[in-house]
Design goal:
Blueprint (H helix, E strand, L loop, with lengths): L11 H133 L5 H14 L3 H7 L1
Helix pairs in contact: 1-2
Amino acid sequence: MLAANALISVTPGLMIWTIFCFLITLFVLKKFAFGPIQKMIDERQARIRAAIDEADNARTEARTLLEEHRALIGSARTDAEEILSEARRVADSTRERVRQEAEVDRQRRLEETHRQVEAETRRALEEIRAEVADLTLIAATKVTGKALTDADHKRLIEESIRELDFSQLEGSKN
C-alpha cells in the first residue's frame, strides 16, 4: 500500500533521522538556550521577589514613620495647648495685677485729693478766722473809739471766734 502523500507515509530511515535531529536540537537548545533563559527567568523572579520584599519593607517603614509623625503632631498639639493655657493664665494674672495696681493707685490719689481738700478747707477756715479777727478789731475800735491793748485784742478775738459757728462750714465739706 502506497500512501497518497509522502509526508504521511512512514519511512523508517527518515523517522530515525528526524528523531535524531530532534534530540540534537533539543540537547543544543537545552544546553545553550533553555539554561540561560531559565537562568534569566530565575534572576528576574529573584529581582521581583526582592523588589516586593523591599516594597513591603518600605511600606512598613512608611507606616512606622506615619505613626511617629502622627504622634509628633499630637505631642505638638498638646504642647501648643499647654503653651496657650499658660499664656492665658499669665495674661489673666497680669490683667488682674494691673487692675489691682490701678485700683491701689486710684485709692491713693483719692486719699491724696481728700487730704488736699481737707487742708484747703482748714486753710480757708483759718483765713476766715483771721478776717473775722481783723473785722472784729476794726469794729471794736470804732465802737469803743479807742485803741485796745494787745491783751484786750487777744481776749476779744478769742471771744468772737468762740461765738462764731464754723460747724456749718466744716459740715459742708463732708
